[in-house]
Design brief:
The chain is α+β, with helices and mostly antiparallel strands. It has six helices and 14 strands. A hairpin with a 3-residue loop joins β10 and β11.
């Protein structure tokens, strides 16, 4: 197995991960329209009848002792090993480190054709409880500085299998995106950015939905069509700081937001991204969730400048999502 590496982009100050073994996945260079499940000879490794199932790191069991959701090691990990980050200069502009850490797959359901927006409240509760348990486990690993939880749905969003699942990546460094958010929280003079946004946008023109524990909006700064920001009402830095009930409420808000997305624009590919404070962080932060439907492609301007172009105003997107909720 080739060793994964972290290489530093000196122009941006951000790490890039080089993982040659992930190119062995059968879907990475397949035509855009190809789905793994279109080949009847390829069995889904996440289904209960998988011939060679991966051993579980943790499971949720039903009354019969059968698993209902489970977490396993990723077969093609981007991060592996228990070494702390050790940066080495390999040349005048060549800075690298071992890509140590952990890369897990979170299988939400036994049902291959199930969908997140169809989950019951009880399933959501189990999902959020399991997610937070894995965050706690990662926080106890001395080499993990940040854990990124994601859900990729659809090939355009980077998913290689249709079976509902997410990923948890324990990293030996804090990513640039999170460092920028940390600095933004520190600069903001009005208290907490997320608390203030939740208060200002609730019931406004960019408001989408809310419940006792979360508020969902199309943020004022939306960088892509129908982008959503899911904000916990309780001010907690880490996802592990909130109660089970609070976490479940946020999960239910995510599910209900997905229902409105599907009712408005159909079964689109999307990325769901959890942002929480880094392990052992003590500064200002408020954990939150981003949902990015994949309706447009970042082109040369966006890649060259980092400035995104959004062709649907967040006010328009929020109004359409609210109408979908009324109809549903």
């Amino acid at each position: 197995m080739a060793v994964s590496q972290l290489r530093l982009n000196l122009l941006t100050g951000r790490w890039v991960t080089i993982v040659p073994d992930r190119a062995k996945r059968t879907t990475d260079f397949a035509p855009r329209a190809t789905q793994v499940e279109s080949d009847p000879n390829l069995a889904c490794p996440f289904c209960p009848d998988a011939v060679d199932p991966d051993p579980s790191l943790t499971e949720v069991l039903d009354a019969n002792g059968d698993w209902t959701m489970r977490v396993v090691q990723n077969r093609y990990p981007a991060f592996v090993g228990d070494e702390t980050l050790s940066v080495r200069n390999m040349g005048p502009v060549h800075v690298m480190a071992e890509a140590s850490g952990i890369h897990e797959v979170f299988v939400f359901t036994r049902d291959h054709d199930d969908r997140l927006e169809r989950f019951t409240d009880d399933v959501i509760a189990d999902m959020m409880k399991t997610l937070r348990a894995r965050f706690r486990a990662h926080n106890e690993m001395p080499n993990i500085r940040y854990t990124q939880a994601i859900v990729n749905h659809g090939r355009e969003a980077g998913a290689s299998l249709a079976h509902p699942h997410g990923q948890l990546l324990g990293l030996p460094f804090v990513p640039g995106e999170i460092l920028e958010e940390e600095r933004a929280f520190e600069r903001f003079k009005g208290g907490c950015i997320v608390c203030t946004t939740s208060d200002v946008e609730a019931d406004g023109e960019r408001f989408v939905l809310k419940n006792e524990h979360a508020v969902v909006v199309c943020p004022y700064w939306s960088s892509s069509p129908y982008e959503l920001l899911i904000m916990p009402r309780s001010h907690c830095q880490h996802i592990t700081d909130c109660t089970d009930e609070q976490a479940t409420g946020v999960g239910i808000a995510i599910r209900d937001a997905m229902r409105q997305i599907v009712a408005t624009i159909g079964d689109v590919a999307f990325n769901l991204v959890f942002h929480t404070a880094p392990a052992h962080h003590s500064g200002q932060f408020h954990w939150h969730v981003h949902l990015f439907p994949k309706l447009t492609t970042a082109a040369g301007f966006e890649r060259g400048t980092g400035v995104m172009i959004n062709i649907v105003a967040p006010e328009t997107a929020a109004a359409e999502l609210r109408r979908a909720s009324v109809k549903r």
